[in-house]
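Reminder to self: tokens first, then the designed residues, so the page reads top to bottom the way the pipeline ran.
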């Protein structure tokens, strides 16, 4: 495959014996079509036993993928990840980036963890995090936390934090000097 030909159309239909995505010029006995480029496809479904047909148009969108900064993946396929990617326009040696909103309560596998990005040459991987509720009570503490999963929304008293606003105090340690750098962020749990 090359850029742009990784689209897919999946047709799940009962009583269909032939599937076409080119208006009936060619047919397949299965409804899975892969390695497609974006554009309009003329779908034709046929039931050979009844002679019934169904025609429709499907527009397979062309998605321009941008780099999502601070997710640990090469989203745009240029070989650079997060702040190493010029698209993110950041210099980690001058900043520490913390996600400030996440949704651990619904456990849908999307945005379930508080994450941090930082210059791994300047700072040790050891991270200390303190989470406080809006009354200033410490509800979570972790040292040597995984920066990709800094906080999962758990607390000392309950399984998960309630929806709302929290204060995160995050400490990083400079390599060589072991100087402790603190970053404070307001975190919203949705």
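Designed residues (190 positions):
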């Amino acid at each position: 495959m090359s850029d742009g030909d990784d689209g897919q159309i999946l047709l799940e239909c009962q009583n269909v014996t032939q599937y076409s995505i080119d208006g009936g010029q060619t047919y397949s006995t299965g409804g899975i079509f892969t390695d497609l480029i974006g554009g309009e496809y003329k779908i034709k479904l046929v039931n050979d036993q009844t002679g019934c047909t169904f025609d429709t148009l499907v527009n397979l969108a062309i998605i321009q993928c941008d780099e999502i900064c601070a997710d640990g993946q090469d989203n745009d396929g240029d070989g650079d990840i997060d702040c190493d990617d010029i698209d993110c326009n950041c210099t980690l040696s001058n900043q520490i980036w913390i996600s400030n909103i996440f949704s651990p309560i619904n456990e849908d596998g999307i945005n379930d963890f508080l994450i941090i990005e930082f210059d791994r040459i300047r700072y040790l991987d050891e991270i200390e995090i303190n989470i406080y509720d809006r009354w200033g009570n410490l509800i979570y503490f972790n040292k040597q936390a995984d920066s990709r999963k800094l906080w999962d929304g758990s607390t000392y008293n309950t399984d998960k934090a309630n929806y709302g606003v929290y204060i995160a105090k995050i400490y990083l340690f400079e390599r060589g000097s072991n100087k402790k750098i603190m970053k404070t962020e307001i975190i919203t749990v949705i």
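The chain has a mean pLDDT of 80.
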